[in-house]
Amino acid sequence: DYRLPPLLKRPLPHAPPPSPPAAVSQVTVRDALNQALDEELERDERVFLLGEEVAQYDGAYKISRGLWKKYGDKRVIDTPISEMGFAGIAVGAAMAGLRPVCEFMTFNFSMQAIDQVINSAAKTCYMSAGSIAVPIVFRGPNGASAGVAAQHSQCFAAWYGHCPGLKVVSPWSSEDAKGLLKAAIRDDNPVVMLESELLYGVPFEMSEQAQSKEFVIPIGKAKIERQGTHVTLVAHSRPVGHCVEAAAVLSKEGVECEVINLRTIRPMDIETVEASVVKTNHLVTVEGGWPQFGVGAEICARIMEGPAFNYLDAPAVRVTGADVPMPYAKILEDNSIPQVKDIVFAVKKALNM
């Protein structure tokens, strides 16, 4: 009978076990921001947090939960209800070498302090010929919440994105929130961080790498959340999620959307958008802000002025908030901000479906 040679009778060596997948956890945007603040307060003693109710009350949205007890009165500071006052204190502290994180309870209230943000923070490095840096972060919820009417529901991405001297970031996921906040705190320029109150309690997957203390996301770099070939969807903040949902709906109809999470409003990563438009030949922008002079308008203009314009097979389409002050009634509010159905309609319009 046929027998194997002795060498082949030996047990074959086992293949090495596959390396375990990187640990992934569900983390809410609220907890991701809290992690970032905690890690940066611990890493750099020049960092401090100030704003209304950020200390003893743990923050109006619990973003600063536990930080006052851990770091004390000098690092986590409750302020009076005076945005111009505490924003001015924060800007002065930054000029003197500290790294303040100034929380607005909502960016609608930053209107009280816009002189400090623009005239005091954004312009000083240029006006001092680079001799005075203003390393400060202005952060808080931006855009529509739920049922808070016109004076609490504006998106200020276009307002602050308009101003040279500022960097402006607008996170969507927990990973965005943590990585961008840490990058903003470490940056030597004033950074405006526009968060979404409606996302604070939403959990997102976060990799082990994203939960490390040295994880940062470079300011000025967009992320492709979904690959596609037929149309480019560009959004920031909460509408990114709507775009991902719309892409799933359209995929069932044979339309593959490429979804770009802008992450940064200024400086804008137009190169990533251009590369996508060259591939898909169609562009739809989505934002919660008003249409006139908006973020989508800027993206469309930049595409029109650049090399990607020649690859467009149809006009770009903008999906925006309605051109009205935000209504209080829920059904009117829902019809004033982009929904998934609006994005699906815009894509079909761009593709002439």
From TrEMBL:
SMART domains xref list: Transket_pyr (SM00861)
Name all Transketolase-like pyrimidine-binding domain ranges: 27-202
GO-annotated molecular function: metal ion binding; pyruvate dehydrogenase (acetyl-transferring) activity
Q: What processes does the entry annotate via GO biological process terms?
A: glucose metabolic process; pyruvate decarboxylation to acetyl-CoA
* Start-end of Low complexity biased regions: 1-10
Annotated signal peptide = none
Record keyword Coiled coil present: no
Keyword Transit peptide on entry: yes
Query: What InterPro entries does the annotation carry?
Result: PDHB_mito-type, THDP-binding, Transketo_C/PFOR_II, Transketolase-like_Pyr-bd, Transketolase_C
The protein's location, in the record's own words, is:
Mitochondrion
Gene3D superfamilies attached to this UniProt entry: 3.40.50.920, 3.40.50.970
Could you tell me the keywords of this UniProt record? Carbohydrate metabolism, Glucose metabolism, Metal-binding, Mitochondrion, Oxidoreductase, Potassium, Pyruvate, Thiamine pyrophosphate, Transit peptide
User: Which reaction is the catalytic activity of this chain?
Assistant: N(6)-[(R)-lipoyl]-L-lysyl-[protein] + pyruvate + H(+) = N(6)-[(R)-S(8)-acetyldihydrolipoyl]-L-lysyl-[protein] + CO2
E.C. number: 1.2.4.1
Chain residue ranges for the region called Disordered:
1-24
Q: Which cofactor does it need?
A: thiamine diphosphate
Q: Pfam families, per this entry? A: Transket_pyr, Transketolase_C
Entry GO CC: mitochondrion; pyruvate dehydrogenase complex
UniProt subunit comment: Heterotetramer of two PDHA1 and two PDHB subunits. The heterotetramer interacts with DLAT, and is part of the multimeric pyruvate dehydrogenase complex that contains multiple copies of pyruvate dehydrogenase (E1), dihydrolipoamide acetyltransferase (DLAT, E2) and lipoamide dehydrogenase (DLD, E3). These subunits are bound to an inner core composed of about 48 DLAT and 12 PDHX molecules. Interacts with DLAT.
What is the protein's known function? The pyruvate dehydrogenase complex catalyzes the overall conversion of pyruvate to acetyl-CoA and CO(2), and thereby links the glycolytic pathway to the tricarboxylic cycle.
PANTHER family from the UniProt entry: DEHYDROGENASE RELATED, PYRUVATE DEHYDROGENASE E1 COMPONENT SUBUNIT BETA, MITOCHONDRIAL
Q: What is the official name of this protein in its record?
A: Pyruvate dehydrogenase E1 component subunit beta
User: What organism is listed for this UniProt entry?
Assistant: Cyanistes caeruleus
Gene name of the record: PDHB
